[in-house]
Design brief:
The chain is α/β, with parallel strands linked by helices. The chain has 14 helices and twelve strands. The chain has helices at residues 17-24, 37-49, 61-72, 86-89, 94-97, 115-122, 151-163, 175-182, 186-190, 216-228, 237-249, 254-268, 297-306, 329-347; strands spanning 5-6, 54-58, 78-82, 102-106, 132-138, 168-171, 195-199, 210-214, 285-289, 309-310, 312-315, 318-322. The structure holds ligand TLP.
Length: 348
Amino acid sequence: MDRMVDLRSDTVTKPTPKMRSAMMSAEVGDDCYGEDATVNELERLAAEKVGKEAAVYVPTGTMGNTAAILSHTHPGDNIIVDIECHIYYYERGNMASLGGVMPVVMASDDGCPEPDKVEEYLQRDVTRFPRTGLVCLENTHNRRGGRTIPLERMKTIREVTAKYGRPVHLDGARIFNAAHALGVEAREIASYVDSVMFCLSKGLSAPVGSMIAGSAEFIQKARIARKRLGGAMRQAGVLAAAGIVALTEMTDRLVEDHQNAKILAEGLAQIEALELNPEKVETNIVIFDTKPLRLTAAEFGEKAIKRGVKVSLYGPTTVRLVTNKDVSREDTLYAVDVLVDLMKETLS
Ligand code: TLP
């Protein structure tokens, strides 16, 4: 079998030829002295894209979120997070082990904590209860199928937190996907938060790197937090060069990934037992339950890979598909055929 369609994640995207040549000729210097011109340019551009005063380049999204948490909070603080958000679900308890802060975990339908519940924590007397130092949001929301959090919801959270002078951090790993789906600029989404982390290494296809953006004062703190986490790099311009291409040339094409995800969802929805609603697919992620197929996610994944499609195992009976630059329209149609056949066979 020659074809392998990799739908595990948009993190699997390879750098474009333009990125590779920009990396080759990047002007570099020691970034710890602020002397890497390419990193400086990437940070300027990133801040501009999300309408913030400053930005700092970090190796990964996980480090970006952790550095933001360390910069906003004090040990012993609470931070409010959605139960399925990446910061809580995947990031190895960094907030607790590195920042000494506790998650207050909230469940909701759309991944955005309920403002009333958030206020309940914020209004507590800090001499008697832990101080709630931060609220984290995620847009688009990965584990909720790449869905967007409506701007109205973000605005309400912002209003509530502002009343108590507490910040909001956005895990905007896929903020440009959210921007397309919401029909706004990324800077509008970021205008409802104090800090934002976004990834260059997902759909934007850079090989490495994420950005944290916020006020100049906050970014100063984030640079110190990055150092604590061992993430201050030297001639990082060779990597940042690809990040510049990612931000200038790769955001518009995310629409193609969204169209392909719709094709996938509409194709798979032919299998009625799956109860997959394509209308809920807003960006580049499709999630479904394998229970109706009487398969575990691992069994489904094994069958799919044998037929040339790689999927991501998202739970015991949950599978995730993520469209990305390295999956063409033709590959998507192929994946639909393969997965529909597999499902029909299993159900017959
Ligand atoms: N997500 C990865 C896995 O960790 C699940 C993926 O394949 O989607 N925030 C969000 C919303 C993310 O989806 C991810 C990565 C991160 C942060 C962390 O970014 P990295 O992997 O650069 O640390």
